[in-house]
């Protein structure tokens, strides 16, 4: 009887279902936040050709019925250029899509700690919804560009906020966030291409996408399991400290925690606000990550918004607008695959990715000028490869920043380094203008 009692008294080992459920909720939450945050930004770039084509048609001499017939169908019958160019480069939409983001990323890391995370997410969702409404109901170029600017503001603030938010969770959440942003590219470009090609007008397509900002709010407020240390609705008393590091370690596995202890100096794990000079020191250390990331994005967005519109094959069964949409879609497929690869492969040599992307840009620049590529299918392959390089550079950059930064600096470093891709994209947009003007004059 005593043996039976002692056996019955032994605790039953049950799996940690609560911990597993929390992990999957957080993984799903970060993936969806990445998807929702970048969705409007991607859709605006996919619609760039259509936005400008629409305004050209509306401002032309065609009657209303004829205008509606040619809207968003691609091809510019009044254009004598062999490249079938829009009068304004799609780089105009790119600049409207990235310059506000760049401004936010340059300034916000120094002051964003004063705005609690809950308010940031609400603001980002409102900006995304406003952008879809403005562009769908626009009647002039300036109104469309204003809608794109709203999308840029929301995406820029969201990116640096959610990258900083990963500091409060285990490091693998960064991989899910990156995969979600890649998913945004595929979902945004693919849905826009499919729905418009199926016969829906771009206006109706953009209105349907209002569900995305709602999904962002649900993902953050209902799906994520937020740690107690997170400044959700209150203003943080100190900025960018080691707050939340205990919650983060509780979610780490043993090997990751041991590695963290070895790589983080004891003085970095102390609390206290970061001085301005200390922030500048952190930024200086980030330059080895920011420069190669910026170069990768300069090359790929010079391709996307400076050259893709000019890579037109008139004898192919897809129209000019449809070819442009599928270039964007295949590029985003490559981004999704590489941004989801962090669990399988990690690439420390970021400069190698930069050089390969520059080679892509030079190749396609000469292809536009001399038109030696025999088929659009070859361009599809190059664009897919371009996306693989860009996505790998993004996710590996932030992984190694998170890994090599101390607890005290990590949240600030993640936000500050996000300026790298935006700076490269902005420079690409500026460079694309004279290139577009030159080719369209031929």
TrEMBL record:
Q: Which superkingdom does the taxonomy of this entry point to?
A: Eukaryota
Tell me how this protein sits in the membrane. Multi-pass membrane protein
Keywords assigned by UniProt, alphabetized = Lysosome, Membrane, Transmembrane, Transmembrane helix, Transport
- Membrane spanning residue stretches: 30-48, 117-135, 141-162, 174-194, 206-226, 286-304, 324-342, 349-370, 376-400, 412-433
SUPFAM superfamilies per UniProt: MFS general substrate transporter
Kindly indicate where the leader peptide sits in this chain: none
Note down the stretches annotated as region Disordered.
247-269
Tell me, in one coarse class, where this protein mainly resides.
membrane
> Per the record, what is one GO cellular component?
endomembrane system
Q: What processes does the entry annotate via GO biological process terms?
A: lysosome organization; regulation of intracellular pH
Q: Where in the cell is the protein located?
A: Endomembrane system; Lysosome membrane
Q: Write down the Pfam families for this protein, in alphabetical order.
A: CLN3
InterPro entries linked to this entry: Battenin_disease_Cln3, Battenin_disease_Cln3_subgr, MFS_trans_sf
Family that this chain belongs to: Belongs to the battenin family.
Its protein name is Battenin
